[in-house]
Design a protein that fits this description.
Helix content: 25-40%
Shape: elongated
Largest sheet: 8 strands, parallel
Radius of gyration: 26 Å
Number of helices: 20
Strand order of the largest sheet: 7-6-5-4-3-2-1-8
CATH superfamily of the largest domain: Glycoside hydrolase, family 3, N-terminal domain
CATH topology of the largest domain: TIM Barrel
Oligomer: single chain
Structural class: alpha/beta
Distance between the termini: 56 Å
């Protein structure tokens, strides 16, 4: 009996030696203070970095031993080769992250384009959002990405928000929370780490923190019941990371939230009990500070309690300053150890500290493997179930479908364009914001789909955003005898915009904006706020983004193949958002 007990104890000790925590501890014990500080640094990388920046990244990895990388817009093959180069230089495998709110396609055009969060907010349940999270995780693993800086947990209740907007699930706190949890769970069940952002909440702002510092002049009571609510629930559900936004919130502290000990440590870590990894938003954004040097900003964020320092402008000097603060006793080494342990344990759980681990990405057939045909089917389901129909002051009334016996006109507004791409002399288009890779005629795609399925002609018209009054009035006259008009608005940029239709065109188009017209908008619902006749048209289909899958979904609705199921996630054009309670 004693032998059995002794064997059990020895076995438990041996197993304990191989826990992620013990593996991380063994690495930590071999590190200098400077090496520990470097593990908290995460820098941007792309394969098109000019020689000087390329050499800088090599040095930061090889000599300084930084902890991680964040991928920027890139070609997938070139990016994989560059990541492999940097991993080969690193004494400890690098964490690779992506800001992929709608999947790796936000940075790599080779991957399928999932919808933005606002379109997901139009879904009536969160099951497909969970499946999307798992699919995004599967795609990330192709590139050995371990962290995705998503979901956005901001509640977008300000229609003039220039930076969150369509990146939010909507304006209802319960729906935002439910969808964010589903996305987070899907990713984390799929083997990557999710990150709730932008704490304490960036939804009710009208300033872009990339350019200036937004102010949230709200009471603590308001913050508790609204902005902080999704983060509190995500923490309870086990989100791995929380990103601090660059915000000024006087009710919490006068300092920028990223640099605020009361916000990062007292509120997030202590009061809300978050024990995961706290990461800054990009420290090179103008909103974080206009008075401190780049390295001083990084030091201030560290002193505030942040664990992972994202994209500091001067990495070497930032390491110098934090190292000096620890050596002088301004910051405790024990506290530094605790933060570094979070990073190392995360690496250990992913197997990155195991003997024989390889961080190299397999580039064989990488473009083909990134296509994920089964994910395209999921994307189509997401589109089919999120397109929103509005009629009068109602949502999802009876949609006026196409009828071959009715004289119908199709007007493609702003349909002639080249998708926004960034080219670096490669064959692959690079953009986080193009609607679909390789689509050059979205303005005719829906039209062709409808006419092919109907087997009858629909008269086709185009109207440019540059059209003058004479051209608009000529269109009005040409449409006078039509019984049904499809007025289809295209927003190819995918960025939040104020105007669905050019202001001058709004009044010039009023003669045809009546019960005959179905307005189809492939863009943000907020565009409806500038249309005084919006509730006079016969019906409205919100397509959320100018993509092929959304146009296919709209064609199914117009032809009666599916019913419109989406619910408006934000109030716009006099229509009220539908909440998220079960």
């Amino acid at each position: 009996m004693k032998k059995i007990v002794l064997l059990t104890i020895v076995t438990a000790m041996l197993v304990g030696c191989n826990t992620p925590e013990r593996k991380a501890q063994r690495v930590l014990e071999q590190m200098t203070i400077r090496q520990k500080v470097a593990q908290l640094m995460m820098v941007s990388v792309d394969s098109y970095n000019p020689p000087a920046k390329r050499a800088n990244r090599d040095s930061l990895v090889r000599e300084e031993g930084i902890g991680g990388l964040i991928i920027m817009h890139d070609s997938i093959i070139r990016s994989a080769v560059r990541l492999n180069e940097l991993q080969a230089l690193s004494p400890i495998p690098l964490l690779v992250s992506v800001d992929g709110e709608w999947g790796p396609s936000m940075r790599y055009s080779a991957f399928p384009f999932f919808p933005r969060q606002m379109q997901l907010g139009a879904l009536t349940d969160d099951s497909l959002v969970y499946e999307m999270g798992k699919a995004v995780a599967e795609e990330c693993r192709v590139m050995n990405i371990l962290i995705n800086f998503a979901p956005v947990a901001d509640i977008n209740i300000n229609p003039n928000n220039p930076v969150i907007n369509t990146r939010s699930f909507g304006e209802d706190r319960d729906k935002v929370t439910r969808m964010a949890i589903a996305y987070m769970r899907g990713m984390q069940d799929g083997g990557i780490y999710a990150c709730a952002k932008h704490f304490p909440g960036h939804g009710d702002t009208d300033v872009d923190s990339h350019k200036a510092l937004p102010v949230l002049p709200f009471t603590r009571e308001r913050l508790d019941t609204l902005e902080l609510y999704p983060f509190r629930e995500l923490i309870r559900q086990g989100v791995a990371m929380v990103m601090i936004g660059h915000l000024n919130i006087p009710a919490l502290d006068d300092a920028v939230s990223t640099l605020s000990y009361p916000i990062v440590t007292d509120l997030l870590k202590k009061e809300m009990g978050f024990e995961g990894i706290v990461v800054t938003d990009a420290l090179n954004m103008r909103g974080v500070s206009e008075t401190l040097s780049p390295a001083e900003v990084t030091l201030a964020a560290y002193k505030a309690g942040v664990d992972l320092l994202l994209m500091p402008d001067d990495v070497k000097q930032s390491i110098d300053m934090i190292e000096a603060a620890v050596v002088k006793g301004e910051c405790s080494e024990q506290d530094l150890n605790e933060r570094v342990m979070k990073i190392l344990v995360l690496k250990a759980k992913a197997g990155m500290l195991d003997e024989g681990y390889s961080a190299q990405i397999d580039t064989t057939g990488l473009n083909e493997r990134a296509c994920f045909a089964e994910h395209q089917q999921l994307i189509q389901q997401l589109s089919d179930r999120s397109i929103t129909y509005l009629s009068g002051s109602q949502q999802n009334g009876e949609c006026r479908m196409l009828n071959a016996e009715r004289k119908t006109a199709y007007v493609a507004y702003n349909a002639t364009y080249v998708p926004m791409k960034r080219q670096y002399g490669e064959q692959e288009g690079l953009s986080g914001f193009c609607p679909e890779s390789g689509i050059t005629e979205n303005g005719t795609f829906l039209y062709r789909t409808l006419t092919d399925k109907m087997g009858s002609a629909i008269d086709y018209f185009t109207l440019s955003r540059d059209a003058n009054q004479e051209q608009v009035e000529a269109l009005n006259a040409a449409l006078a005898d039509y019984e049904h008009i499809l007025f289809v608005c295209h927003d190819p940029a995918g960025r939040p915009k104020d105007d669905l239709i050019v202001p001058e065109h709004v009044s010039w188009l009023s003669p045809i904006m009546d019960e005959r017209t179905t307005l189809i908008h492939f863009g943000t619902p907020y565009g409806m706020n500038h249309l005084p006749w919006i509730q006079q048209v016969g019906g409205i289909l919100i397509g959320y983004a100018d993509s092929q899958v959304n146009q296919i979904a709209v064609s199914k609705i117009l032809l009666g193949e599916i019913e419109p199921q989406g619910k408006l996630p934000v109030s716009a054009g006099g229509f009220q958002a539908v909440g998220g309670k079960r």
